[in-house]
Amino acid sequence: MTARTTMDDLIQKLRVYTQAGTSDFVVNTTTYWSDEQLQDELDKTQKKVNYQAMQAIPTYGIGGTVTYTVYQTGLADWEKSPVIQNEGGTTLTAGTATANYSFDDNVGVVTFVSDTEGKTRYITGYVYNVEMAAAKVWEQKSALYATYFDFSTDNHTVKKSQMVQGCRDMAKYYQSRAGVIQVEMVRSDDTF
């Protein structure tokens, strides 16, 4: 399996948060941390956003004119290429010479080429909790370093156990930044 190209920025961000190289260690015949392995950790935090209305941000010009080209989703860390639709449900285009908008997936901001007059725009796509994924990677690193031990020889002391504690500290740090996990539950016995 190959990592999705739409995940490149998120994988790189997770790699930075976790200081994960592409060959940090080997367990049996598996080398850690490939892009696919980091994507798997991100996918565990994936949340589907379906047809969510975005907030239009007014821009005030000279003479009191108001234009609307910037829309906020209120969510960060999007997978690239979400679907953007207008108030009638028509899908708009991005990334082409005739693009209607550009999208900053890191902060979840859509910038339209022309004034939308504040009309409703919708977004559908996936967001990820990179901090939660980072906490899980640090926990795994801690487990892999758990067999390390301290030793002393000829006035020289090596405390490898500090690596385990450092990983645990980083896991706690990112866990505290991950926020609350929300789960949507649907009753299966409820009829509509």
Q: Over the alpha carbons, how many angstroms does the gyration radius reach? A: 22 Å
Q: Quick check: average pLDDT? A: 91
Order of helices and strands: HEEHEEEEEEEHEEH
Distance between the termini: 40 Å
Global morphology? elongated
Low-confidence stretches: none
Number of helices: 4
The fraction of residues assigned to DSSP E strands is 25-35%
Main sheet: strand order = 4-5-8-7
Question: Level of helix content?
Answer: 25-40%
Helix and strand content put the structural class at alpha+beta
Q: In total, how many domains does the architecture comprise?
A: 2
Major sheet characteristics: 4 strands, antiparallel
Total number of strands? 11
Describe this structure in words.
The protein is of the alpha+beta class and 192 residues long. The chain is built from 4 helices and 11 strands; from the N terminus they run H-E-E-H-E-E-E-E-E-E-E-H-E-E-H. The chain folds into 2 domains: 5-46 and 128-177, no CATH class; 47-127, no CATH class. It has helices at 8-18, 35-43, 130-145, 161-177; strands at residues 25-27, 30-32, 47-53, 55-60, 66-72, 83-85, 101-104, 109-112, 122-127, 150-153, 156-159. The strands form 4 sheets. Strands 4-5-8-7 form a 4-stranded antiparallel beta sheet, with no helix packed on it. The longest helix is centred in the C-terminal third of the chain and has 17 residues, at 161-177.
